[in-house]
């Protein structure tokens, strides 16, 4: 359906055609909270914001909040991400996927 979130495999194929990189996949398998959290702790820096968990299947809008979620570490702040990018010499660059004028509420 047109209003569904694509399956992960279909999303990856679309991103590839568009030249968009995906985030790293830390865990791929049956949902196991402890295994997912352990994979995040082992593979990410302590400054990492957190991780996203989602069903690999396509997701209908009415099921999205049940099949997709985000874990954010308890002491994370937006300033952490900005400081990390500056420290590593990475500028914050708009992705260009949406015109900034569309984001302006005025």
Fold and architecture overview:
This protein has 106 residues and is α+β, with helices and mostly antiparallel strands. It contains five helices and two strands; from the N terminus they run H-H-E-H-E-H-H. The protein has a two-stranded antiparallel ribbon with strand order 1-2. The mean pLDDT is 83.
| Amino-to-carboxy terminus distance | 33 Å
β-strand percent reads 5-15%
Spatial shape: globular
Indicate the radius of gyration in whole angstroms. 16 Å
Mean pLDDT: 83
Helix/strand-derived class?
Answer: alpha+beta
Number of strands: 2
Largest sheet: 2 strands, antiparallel
Q: Spatial order of the strands in the main sheet?
A: 1-2
Strand/helix succession: HHEHEHH
Set out the fold topology.
Layout: H1 8-18, H2 33-43, E1 50-54, H3 64-67, E2 68-72, H4 78-87, H5 100-103
Key structural traits:
single chain, alpha+beta, 5 helices
Please outline what is shown here:
With 106 residues, the chain is an alpha+beta fold.
């Amino acid at each position: 359906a047109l209003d569904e979130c694509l399956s992960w495999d279909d999303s990856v194929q679309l991103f590839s055609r568009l030249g968009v990189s995906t985030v790293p996949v830390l865990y791929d398998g049956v949902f196991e909270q402890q295994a997912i959290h352990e994979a995040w702790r082992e593979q990410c820096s302590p400054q990492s914001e957190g991780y996203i968990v989602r069903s690999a299947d396509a997701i209908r809008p009415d099921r999205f909040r049940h099949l997709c979620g985000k874990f954010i570490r308890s002491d994370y702040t937006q300033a952490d991400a900005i400081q990390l990018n500056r420290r590593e010499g990475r500028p914050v660059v708009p992705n260009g996927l949406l015109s900034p004028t569309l984001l302006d509420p005025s």
